Amino acid sequence: MGHKDHKEKAVKNVNCMVITVSDTRTEETDSSGRLIQRLLKENGHTIKYYKIVKDEPEQIKGAIKQGATDDNLHAIIINGGTGISKRDTTFEAIDGLLEKRLNGFGELFRYLSYKEIGSAAMTSRAAAGVYKEKIIFSTPGSEGAARLAMEKLILPEIGHLAWEAGR
């Protein structure tokens, strides 16, 4: 089966959870979380859950595990906490949970980011994979990075990946 055949089987309406990882953002100031939700809705997907959690590994893992208990949830999109400062712990939190890794997501994100911002792109630890039949995407927390990841990588493939992870 070729990639075009796979795309035909894609989930048309992906049920999503959006998690913002931040020590300072609120629903009012979470512009990246709002952007991700808006882009998902504009592309026919559903936001089932939205959470803001502190940049603490246990809080991040807890939110993911909570979402993963919903059999009707297909994808979890996390923004924030992917840098290299002491407080950036999203990568460590999800890395231990992922049952399968989609290394190409991070590689492609950094390549596309490099084309926009140059060598600073190497500091991103954007990642993706599968946990409990859910697609997990982890992007940086800036609005520009979230838009790049959503428009160039996540939205074009989310339905296909949701179908693959659930079969």
Oligomer type: single chain
Structural category: alpha/beta
* Helix and strand sequence: HEHEHEHEHEEH
Describe the biggest sheet? 6 strands, mixed
How is the largest sheet built, in terms of strand order? 2-1-3-6-5-4
**Averaged pLDDT:** 95
Task: Characterize the structure shown.
With 167 residues, the chain is an alpha/beta fold. 44% of the residues lie in helices and 20% in strands. The chain is built from six helices and six strands, in the order H-E-H-E-H-E-H-E-H-E-E-H. It has helices at 3-8, 31-42, 57-68, 90-95, 103-117, 143-165, and strands spanning 15-21, 46-53, 75-79, 100-101, 127-131, 134-139. Strands 2-1-3-6-5-4 form a six-stranded mixed beta sheet, with helices on both faces. Strand 5 and strand 6 (134-139) form a beta hairpin. Helix 5 runs antiparallel to helix 6 (143-165). It starts with a helix and ends with a helix. The mean pLDDT is 95.
